[in-house]
Amino acid sequence: MTGISVIIPTLHRTEFLLNSLKDLVVQKCDFPFEIIIVDQSSQFDLEVLNFCNDYTFCSYHHITFFKGLPEARNFGWQNAKYDYILYVDDDISCKENLLKEHFSALKDNSVGVVGGQVIEKNNPNSGKKTGNFDKWTANPLAGFHLEGTFETDHGKGCNFSTKKEVLLKVNGIDENLTKGAALYEETDFCLRVKKEGYKIMFHSKASVYHLAAETGGCRVPDIKKYIGSLVRNRSLIISRHVKGFYKITSIIYLIKLVSAYAFSYKKISLFKQFITSFNEGITVGKMKVRCTKY
Fold this sequence. Notes:
Shape: globular
Helix content: 25-40%
CATH superfamily of the largest domain: Spore Coat Polysaccharide Biosynthesis Protein SpsA, Chain A
Distance between the termini: 20 Å
Structural class: alpha/beta
Number of domains: 2
CATH architecture of the largest domain: Alpha-Beta Complex
Low-confidence stretches: none
Mean pLDDT: 94
Strand content: 15-25%
Order of helices and strands: EHEHEHEEHEEEEEHHEHHH
Number of strands: 11
């Protein structure tokens, strides 16, 4: 069915989520849309439910039978009413044309993913290229603050859209990337979509302001666990998407990155964590994409 289903995974961010919803429910567009909230917080959120009850196109799901951002994204699109899927974070603000701009960019049959503009509140809005995947380092570059509409390699997780038919074709978001902060799950998805021959487009008019809430979400504050998930998931990306000589340069870059963390935090144990997580990531990267049927 023609329209957009907005999927919002959320975790312990009631106030931020309510503010995001206030921007989304007043979107101006000439097509139908719905908002699906996938809440994995420890407690049922009555405030959010009461907000949703005022809008027939807004639904609230409190989930206790799975845990993870990729799972929430897959649950969302599998329960969506419309053909186009828009993923946004629970801590964004946007103008009333966000859905309209994503919809217009997705209408091109050759487009598989649209990455919108992201203006970060706390992180530096730096970079001269948008959404490039550096094959020398297996590093997904940012630069999502820039202007324009052009082809790129990936979108940013807090503001990207796709199509149900594309999600079905590539078997959704890979739940193998759930571990830790679910790093690189949108990068992996976009690279798999690109391999199927679709374009990944950046469209700056589909813009959000990312507040990057300091609490809640799927952050991993423990440095050892963070490095574990970073190395594991980056290794999966290397195993699945990097070939030949670039594998060597990507692994060297990853070792340098972990070394910088180890010396900064004075934790030599991070090197041991690197070995364990690297081997796990390479192994999992050779496995099939995992997408539970909800």
